# Entry
Amino acid sequence: MSGQTRDKIGALIVDDEELARVVIRELLKSHPQIEILAECMNGFEAVKAVAEHKPQLIFLDVQMPKLSGFDVLELIGSDVPVIFVTAYDQYAMRAFDVHAVDYLLKPVGRERFDAALLRAKNRIGEEMPSAEQLAAAARPPHQFLERLVVKDGTRVTLIPVDKLDYAEAQDDYVALATGGQKHLKQQTIAGLEACLDPTRFVRIHRSYIVNLERVARIEPYAKDSRIAILAGGARLPVSRAGYARLKALLDERG
Amino acid sequence: MHPLLTRGRFGLYLLAWIPLAGILTYLLTAGGRLKWIESATLVLPLCIVYAFICLSAWYSVKSTSLEASSLSRLSLTHILAAAFISFLWVQLARLLAYFLSGATLFPNLSAHLSAQLPILFGAGFLFYLLAVSFHYVILSLETSREAEARAMEIGVLARDAKLKALKAQVNPHFLFNSLNSISALTSIDPARAREMCILLADFLRLTLGLGEKSSVPLVEELSLLERFLAIEKVRFGARLKMEEDIQEDCKKLLVPALLLQPLVENAVVHGIANLPDGGTVRLASHCQNGTLFILVENSFDPESTPAHRNGLGILNVRRRLEARYGSLASVHVISEEERFRVELTLPAEIEEAKT
# Structure
């Protein structure tokens, strides 16, 4: 299934509207060097199709149910050039922040489409920024995350942030603990911390972020260190600086 | 600022005093006490001064408007003012006559005038009252012009608001997405592309037409919604399902124009569009005991962020109903499980028969 050796450029069309996919398919007819590997109706299918078909180019709608185009991009990482196709021009800036090749507005015209395709061909094989940079850039400015997207193989899980108990750093990943389950996400703990509302989530330790709502009590552990016990029973180390941050936030809440 | 103290107006005002001065000159010569020349010499400066004094009537006129004051208070104020001002004027006339008596031309002017003082007082009294009524005329002219200007301003504001509402209602993304659908259909199904163009044209025409009116029969609003949903159905395909349950006798009842359209649009954009497998938009209406109930219900994704569900649409509907019906109308928003419901109640109004 690997598309690495083919001489054609393998492309994916992702849009929840059948007719929108028809337009792209139609426009691609005059570009025989592009081969449509799959069409996807939503973000979940897109993530799966990327793993399966290894496309070299993706046409990606922004507004889709559950997983937006930006979520998809965050999950699939950065190797594939993406052309966003949407009726909404307010996402254009963000699209270029996440290094989209181009940004096409619906209805899409032939000339504009061909220009985007030309840009895409020049970009194929180029170095792209890391997934983490993409994730940060994809986040709407001045807004904290309401939910986290996690990919496990081809399965995608959405975790609303209020369901998140705590996050633990594990090398280049963070483990997201929610209701007794843990999900691994490729992101640093500092990167995650920056995306979360600081009045609800506290970095209590070099390796831990905790959901303030879940903290049941804090007990002394050793000299200069404490331990936070969560409602679910988990015990997390609290550093001295972490304790100061936690205390400041709890005092603020009264 | 006094309304007469402008160029042109003031000249006309002074002109109006010329016949008054003529009449007064004639009256003072009656009985042969004063000679023509004596009377005219006295009356001319007196009338010029009095013309200015009478301008002061504007301020008492403004403070006692015809609508706000009782008749007794009105007449008392102006009669007292007239008597007082006329009395001062008479004293002024006596002073003037006294000085003129020194001149060789008018040796006995002072003595001759004293017999005519009641005539002078009476004239001063009447002239002042004349000035008062004149000022009332000016006041009402000014007021009506102001009212006209205000009415025009309100009209402009209302039209502005309507335009803004229209712009908000015809969501540009809706248009762009529809045009994209049409552009897809042109190659795969030209007949449906044409059908869609017509639906879109009808929708826009109806929106503009309804926007002109303040209220429309429910059935007209429904025909707009049906077109809107038909267009969205082309986009969403099987993902969008519709149900309509409208009691027959509600259809002629009046609703504010374009009231439901933003709610149905919300139902599609924030409800159905967020569901990978789609859902149902349901419209229902019944009436009972003079109240019209309207329900707009849609499937939604409970996990989607709240900001995606509410939005300005419902706030606008609430404001419009409140401005129009006060406490007689209400909006209830209920989100339960996977259904999002907006329930409206408003007084059942029927269009009056056109004559």
